[in-house]
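hey so i finally got around to running both of the ones u sent me last week. sorry it took forever, my laptop kept dying halfway thru and i had to restart like 3 times lol. anyway pasting them below in the order u listed, first the sequence line then the structure token line for each. didnt double check formatting much so if smth looks off just lmk and ill redo it

first one:
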Amino acid sequence: MRVLPCLLLLLFSLLMPIPMEKMTAQDSVRVQEFYRLAGEIQEQIWPGWGGTPAPLLLVTPTNEFLTHVAKAPQGFTDAGDGSFVRARQFPTNFQATFPAFGPPSVIVVGTPQNTASKTSTPWLIMLMHEHFHQLQDAQPDAFELVDQLGLSHGDKTGMWMLNYPFPYEKPEVGRSFRNLRDRLLAALAEVNDERFKPLAAQYLRQRRAFFRLLAPDDRKYFNFQLWKEGIARYTEVRAAEAAAHYQPTREFAALPDYTSFLEYGKNYRQSTLKELEEANFAESKRISFYSFGAAEGFLLDRFEPGWKEQYFGHPFTLDEFFEKSGSD
């Protein structure tokens, strides 16, 4: 008479949900290290940043793991390790921040080897860039204010931010951008404060001349990208520098692709400026805004040191800081 209990056991096992795989040990170490690093450095860079929700969706080849949320969205199951899991839906090379499940914005990111970061230390610093987008998106009425720019032209997906028809290939725009870029780099390269002032003033004049070339919507888009992505790259560089003396956990330092935070932080500002120096506006297109906006952040640190206190009060433009500067 043991057939019935066996049948019942088989039926019970068939009715039980099939457990999804858990996050790998290495991925778990990386994700935990991101939150540990952010907790140590974020307030040094942007006071008040520490109170920003930071949910993260890790995209692996087969699954997606959501962590730092109070409640799992529909379609996720409990992975049993503080995260929730579902079958993969996003590309494995994804690295973006948006309200994937409604506010707050979620960092959606692939594992290091599948993204442009390639290894663990750059991946953590890149996550600080994405985490800064969470701070931007957490500002009052952030998404409504983006809509009010009037640049989407009916696109409700947000893809207009990537595909906006900015005149990157227009010859006069390219020439003026190169001139502007060169003056910005020259000002940043000058270490002597007295010689820096006239170089900064020249830059401000050229900046106004460049913007006069642009149609009103193009100017709004350029400013939006500098404010959004450029200052996120600036924050990424500042995070790399702040992390230069960060002591990682033994588990993170033992990862096979671990590299020194000190070495990475020491070189990242210069590599960003080198990226800007080599940028071809017609080819790089919106990617040029990342290094250019970061460089403008570095410039503001020198002649308008309190600019970050007012940054969120002037959404989607840095004009306010350059126009009121006494450097001209």
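and the second one:
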Amino acid sequence: MPVLNEGSIPSPDKTTWNLEVYGLVDKPLNLNYVEFRSIPTVVSISDFHCVTGWSKLGNTWEGVRFRDIMNMAVSQAAATYATFESENGFTTQLMVADLSKDDVLLAYRLEDSELSTEHGGPLRLVVPEKYGYKSAKWIRKIKFTDKLELGFWEKNGYSNTADPWKNDRYY
């Protein structure tokens, strides 16, 4: 899979890495890498579509379903969006309804190997029904909110809905 990103590739350290889940939740989370890896995982095969026009079919991802994290944090009914904040300051936001599908993962493995830093390791979001810029790399924080917050690419002219089947790339 090609490596595309804005800016430099960070160098996260798994010994100090953590995932914070906050906002409109009843039980905020702050999980280190060992704690995150202790959550039951799934393997999911899905396609990946890049806004630049290429697709990679049949990727084997392993990770935690997003909705399992949502359930652990007990997201409040008012939380209709989740904003993802990355190691490098990148953000993106998706509707909780889109994130609750079976194939939406917080992934740490790709094709039977640990996810490389270039591909978003130690943890990236995988949302197969959206263009790749919605599958944020280097995830550090997830904020549940009731407000629309456009992310980096969306503020720069990319579609917030990012539907590859509708060729929904730009505003």
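quick thing i noticed on the 2nd:
The longest strand covers residues 55-65.
anyway thats it, ttyl
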